[in-house]
Batch of 3 targets.
Target 1
Amino acid sequence: MVKPNSLSARPGKKTKPASARSVPRRPPVPETAPIGPETGETEKRILAAARKEFVVKGLEGARMQVIATGAGVNKALLHYYYRSKENLYGKVLEDTVATVWGKLQSEFRARSSPARPQGDGVEGIVQTIVSTYIRTLSANPDFPLFIFREMARGGATFTVVLNELLKNFGDVPATLIKALEEEARAGRIKPVHPLHFIMNMMGMTVTTFLAMPLLQRMGTAMGHKIKFDEAFLEERIRSITDTLLNGIRIKR
């Protein structure tokens, strides 16, 4: 006597083939697939939530579940689009730097015209860069700390991102370097290594926001309350610009 198979269908009940009962799975994302969701607003939420998590905990300590919750998306969707935390981190870093450089490029194009192809010289270029940096970082105060964390971990991802961004925004530093060299040859400014000049400019602008909590405490302790409002930003832009230019001007 043959015992009925426990897995066989019960009498009187039709069964579907295994292939019909199985739930189709989404195929794996190929390595060449574009990274990022198709919906612009969804990507903005993801990048904002990811940057917040990376700023607080760094790449190693950040959790994809926290990012997904902050963006209001499913964690599986996050992994589907970005494939790994490292890919998402690189995308956030690229978006951060591109935001600043994209605004700079727009400002440079607005300054140039057929009647004034060179703009208004190194002074106008420096003022444009400093003003754009200060206002962009003021609107995105988490940018400096995020970049600072990346530099502290060696800047490997930043180097890769920067090389790619230079292909699109390379005219931003190139415009400044060209102006410095031309004005030095004309005898209007002292010869200066562009790298030192750019480092000084970046240091003064970024430190404005990195040191803000400390400056607020120091001001209170010394009896001078510092209000980081529009008037302060305008004063800071003038101060940085004057400091940079006074250091290279040739006094007659």
Target 2
Amino acid sequence: MLPGTKYARSGDIRIAYQITGDGPFDVIWAPGTMSHLDLDWEIPQRALFFERFSKFCRLIRFDKRGTGLSDRPITMATLEERTDDIRAVMDDVGIKSANIFGVSEGGSMACLFAATYPDRVDSLLIWGAQARWVACEDHPWAQTPEEHNEMLAMVQDDWPSIEYITGPGAGMGRDAPPAAVEAVARYMRAAASPSSVYAYEVMNGQIDTRPILPSIQARTLVMNRTGDPCARVQAARDMASRIPGAKFIEYPGNSHSIMLDDMDTVLSDIHTNSSPAKDQSISSIACWRRCFSSTSLRPPSGPQRWATSPGAIS
């Protein structure tokens, strides 16, 4: 059974969100360019990831305005307006503070939220993000302006193209199985329209969070894969270096996805770095081990690779 969907108000816009788990602390999942709360549960690898994530916390996921189950206004939202979706969901749930998890472009939202509302952020967790998404002279680790324009043309001319899904858009990687690519294509078509994605990608190309990163006060963990085709590992490392006291962890793989076969390792790091210190007890660790000791939940062993069902849309 799918978790219930509720709606928070951010101005005149309704933001859809779902809650799973009943752990001792809250994690707000700020998604990438597009998401779809209900379809997350129809892709086995994504469902498995969110089920495991919900074992140790109360996980609150939302579709940002313009995507998924949330309202789709005619005008596209600024980064500040998208960031306010986080506040709206927290207020609707009745949360004073939480661990904020930003994935891909959601990492930019999470950073801005942490800088704007320091008292509402217990910790900041970032996966597959960078301070700028288009390269400039002092930030070379990103798409060139020409590459960014080529990606925009992909969105306009052939949404969602295989090149966008395996390359700079979803970052599944060139070795992604065709069936997985097609599943992600169906997800993307349901999650956002071509016009919405185009507008978001245009605005993503204007993002530069470097000026606000030094003001972030929360305990921060930045994570990235070595060969991520969307978020360059050098850029993620540079972003971490600009946040006071931030920790950086690099994982193997040539994908943008957090949901590969090493998800237990990634989730263990998330658990360690998001729990309040008081929850890092022997009983908490024992609970974690019990949650993930079942062989029925364990993914296949071996090198990091795509399962038969994709989890690419971070």
Target 3
Amino acid sequence: MTPTDIPVQRPRADGTLVKALGRAFRWKRMLESGEFATVKELAEHEKLGFSYMTRVLRLSLLAPDIVEAILGGVQPPELTLAALLEPFPAEWDGQFKTYSIKPPNASSPNTSET
């Protein structure tokens, strides 16, 4: 078997994470538009617990690069929905450290600045 005969496995997005992100951004938009005045009102409308809704809504605060990694299916395996529903830093740098994701524009150890 040659290297060209080996099927390439492309990253596959985690449907559970993608769905949670979609919900978070949809709910955020519904609140920002004034469709619902409070998170409690929205949670009641969606027939969900207030606590769960607030934890999912927090996903809309993730750094864009983390969102892109999840949507592209290239997030670290330990980055599960359960992990994301736990409290995380609001600052993007702290999120990169918490989830062991390389921040954008981070220089790799093999590059040198001139």
